[in-house]
């Protein structure tokens, strides 16, 4: 397996803690600070539109309430996602990443019970939106069912498998899904998994690292890339 080369730092949920999460403003901020990669979450609205948002409910990150998957576009796009920012359409975030030359780690974040539908829409649209782009995206998900769909519907789009703590059979799962990266909690990654990943040319990506000393230790142990909320601490 050929190793997939990544930037060492990835802006978590767009702009981390320095901008409203999962917004176009966050993506622009990451680029302005020199970041070459951003991560964001994609979920479906009640109308089936893929949008950038992390939680299944609206309360934490917007001035709205209720479930994202039960909220129609007309209401969803009228909400304030922080500092006057709107919840972005996935297509708009993709266009911005392409314009800025950013690598986008697109996390398929389905609402409970919507794994297959979300994966179908996001996988097909990802392949279409980035067709011919100089910097190609990376699809990831905690949902193995969603990654199966991505493998089958968008085989040309690279995939990463997300775990909190990698299970004993993580490499078998990664190979089954034809994925190229392993993503996991920075506090739950073992040296044994890092060694196995290194031996198989699989980059390990850890979330969410906001302390310089922890970052230094993880890089020394062989982790390839880190997601951070503290873009100010690690800006080049």
Q: Give the averaged pLDDT, no decimals.
A: 97
- Termini, distance in Å? 30 Å
Low-confidence stretches: none
Q: Could you tell me the number of beta strands?
A: 9
Report on the biggest sheet: 9 strands, mixed
Task: Write down the overall geometry.
Answer: globular
Question: What value does the Rg take, in angstroms?
Answer: 17 Å
Task: Please name the CATH architecture.
Answer: Alpha-Beta Barrel
In helices, the fraction of residues equals 25-40%
Number of helices: 9
Summary, kept brief:
The chain has helices at about 25-30, 75, 90-100, 115-130, 145-155, 170-175, 190-200, 210-220, 230-235; strands spanning about 10, 35-45, 50, 105-110, 140, 160, 180-185, 205, 225-230. It is of the alpha/beta class.
């Amino acid at each position: 397996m050929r190793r997939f080369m990544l930037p060492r730092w990835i802006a978590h949920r767009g702009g981390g803690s320095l901008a409203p999460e999962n917004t176009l403003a966050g993506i622009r901020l990451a680029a302005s600070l020199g970041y070459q990669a951003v991560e964001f979450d994609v979920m479906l609205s009640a109308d089936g539109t893929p949008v950038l948002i992390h939680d299944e409910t609206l309360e934490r990150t917007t001035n709205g309430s209720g479930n994202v998957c039960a909220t129609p576009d007309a209401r969803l796009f009228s909400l304030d996602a922080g500092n006057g920012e709107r919840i972005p359409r996935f297509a708009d975030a993709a266009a911005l990443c392409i314009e800025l030359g950013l690598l986008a780690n697109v996390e398929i974040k389905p609402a409970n019970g919507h794994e297959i539908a979300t994966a179908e829409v996001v996988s097909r649209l990802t392949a279409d939106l980035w067709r011919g782009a100089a910097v190609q995206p990376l699809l990831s998900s905690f949902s193995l069912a969603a990654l199966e769909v991505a493998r089958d519907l968008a085989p040309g789009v690279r995939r990463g498998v997300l775990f909190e703590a990698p299970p004993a059979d993580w490499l078998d799962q990664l190979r089954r899904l034809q994925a190229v990266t392993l993503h996991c909690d920075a506090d739950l990654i073992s040296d044994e998994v890092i060694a196995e990943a290194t031996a198989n040319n699989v980059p390990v990506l850890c979330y969410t690292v906001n302390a310089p000393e922890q970052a230094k230790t993880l890089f020394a142990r062989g982790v390839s890339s880190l997601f951070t909320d503290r873009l100010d601490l690690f800006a080049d």
